[in-house]
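=== RUN LOG ===
request id: a7f3
mode: sequence -> structure
chains: 1
length: 830
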Amino acid sequence: MATIPLFAPLEGWAGPVQDVPDAVFAEAMLGDGIAIDPVAGMLVAPCDAQVVTVQPTGHAITLVTPEGAELLIHIGLDTVALAGRGFEPVVKAGDRVACGAALIRFDLDMVVREARAVVTPIVVTNGERFAIEHRAGAGIVAVGDPLMTLVARADVATATAAEGGASASRTIAVPLVHGIHARPAARIAELAKRFAAEVMLEKDAISSSARSPIGLLTLGVGHGDTVTITATGADAEAAVAAVAELILSGIHEEAPAPAPPPPPAPIVAEVPEGALAGVTAAPGLAIGTVALWRAEDLPVPAEGAGIAAEESCFEAARRALADELAARSAAATGPARAIFEAHAAMLADPTLIEATLAGIAQGQSAGHAWRGAIRPQADALRAGGDRRLAERADDMRDLERQLIARLMGVEDTRADLAPGTILVADDLLPSQLMGLDLDRLAGLAVERGGPTSHVAILAASRGLPALVAIGAGLRDVAAGTRVVLDASGGLIHVVPSAETLADAGTRIAEAQRRRADALARAGEDCRTRDGTRIELFANCGSADDARIAVANGAEGCGLLRTELLFLERDTAPSLDEQVADYQAVATALDGRPLIVRLLDIGGDKPAPYLPIGPEENPALGLRGIRVGFAHPEILADQIRAILAVEPVGQCRIMVPMIAGVDELRRVRAVLDGIEAGSRVQLGVMVETPAAAVTADLLAREADFLSIGTNDLTQYALAMDRGNASVAGALDGLHPAVLRLIGETVKGADVHGRWTGVCGGLASDPLAVPILVGLGVTELSAAPAAVPEIKALVAALDMEAVRAHARAALACATAAEVRALARKFEGELGA
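=== RESULT ===
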């Protein structure tokens, strides 16, 4: 029985092919094997072999061993779309190569930037003839390390699937943009194997069995090429028709996931001398002294001290970390609590635990096995093309580091920061930020990272100016440097002039003065200068947010984001959990009104226990109240929990993502079924153009209307706010959005209902005068922004803001509206 040793053809992280973020490889459609995430740009032969094909684009190669084992090595995912850029084959079809001989050079940096992923599967495509007897475990491999051992199967049938019988054929032109490369070959082979017929593809008098992915690749079928499909056997006609239809349909592939998007573009068009541009993660201005932070992996031994010992160490460390996360979660509030809970959920993930134990069983140390289990998952998130998911990969890296620190007995030392420190980091994990003395930090400047990462959320919740995605230029900044961090303006002045320092100092002092003055008057009713009453509420996600809101002078909570209780967990919260959570917020508000938004998940906020199938456009799919209708028990329990809050009447219910009166009536029916004649007010969120233009119809049956400007903007402008390609163009001050707000107010006025704004515009000082001028009588802002917005409203005159709003509606673009708003702001402050 032939035994064939295969050796690592790349240096990098090895892992099971089942973890490759591509169904063709993960489901072994092309064959079983191993994947390597390379750290160098050279592919070598894993054994003595003959080159069967080198793809014209240079991204993939097929080999056959002297014993007949067929191998496919595919550098990266969707790399065929690079059209050969970055790949330099050094062999050609027909060449015989020795183990370790160079096959393909490739530009690793370019592939990382432009391909969906660089992970490289090495698979045996004729697994019916050769079994994998042994394979390396997850972890680092060097070129030439043992990778797999193949053994010839003794029971291979030599007969074809169907000899003799009926025959059929059909000639077609191939419409596939990249021809028949690895993925289409796998799909065709999978389909051909279902029929009792021998199916062949022929191009230019060269033919191959359709059951052989390697054979199909040897044909070199490109876009527009003509191929003939023939079949012999009982299912000949059906087989030819099915294969032809599959090819002509585009192989039924989903569109390839885009390459990871580039870092968010800085908002600064021109960068002043001595400054670097970045992306605002948390606004603010600070002057401080640089302290450097460099993220480094903790070293772990590759080999363990015995399976039993390593399993025991892993379980002890995992349980200890779980206990610590539970304790810290119980003591935390707001974003910090959500992060601890998310980490705890990942730590309990059975897939990660099983993968780690499998690595230990192969002789690896617990730390090495844990890293090999969790890091590919994080890499897959980064490679998926969704920037928010890529930022969630930071949480996995954080959890990797925390558990390895426990296994290695390494304690995180609290950095000794001087007051007024600007922390400059290449990257920063949530637990690392939470381990710092934040009272001594003046701001954060991060080379990488993103504006929706957990680090960004934590910084914003603490009012800590933070600038991310600054780039490699930040590496040249030395510790002890005096810098100006203008996070609101998207700049860090690393060599500030005397004028820049003086101007920043003046602006900081003026902001502090305004803040102190606003806080001193925050307890007063919110009224315009001429006495018009405007209610000023706050958006909250927790009791802690509510306490901050009250301290800042909020008159109530205009939006309680209940989804924060439902996300980052494996099961829905119980009725008692919901009652306790809502009651805690109500108690913190000390009798002030509490508007509870019904569960708003789906789209960019999935919950694992409420499965929502893949949607071509999640923003237009099952989200908001539609999820409640799809899961009526969740909707009913939430309404019961709101009704249980005391004192009765403090809570009001708000329905998200309403598109018509029929949806409001369905919710009203549920409410009446639980408590007939309920005294709880029922209002709607106006987030769709449909709701805005039928506001008069909604106001006939709703007790109030509150405009969610974030979603209203994306739906009015047809731009997904989660899509990095267009999100930068979203602006709530677009005239189309302002006109929809005006229509909503008019419709509500017909029936004497009040209209509020609980979206981002309510916290924007440029937008507030326009909103008040349009007739909005309630604003729900971020808790920290309440004093500033209340002070702004107190300076407004209703006649002036009505004229200002009319002028804004007449503008042609959002840029014109903002220019108008800045002029009004200047005149107001004069």
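=== NOTES ===
Confidence is low (pLDDT under 50) at residues 156-163, 252-265.
The longest strand covers residues 285-293.
=== END ===
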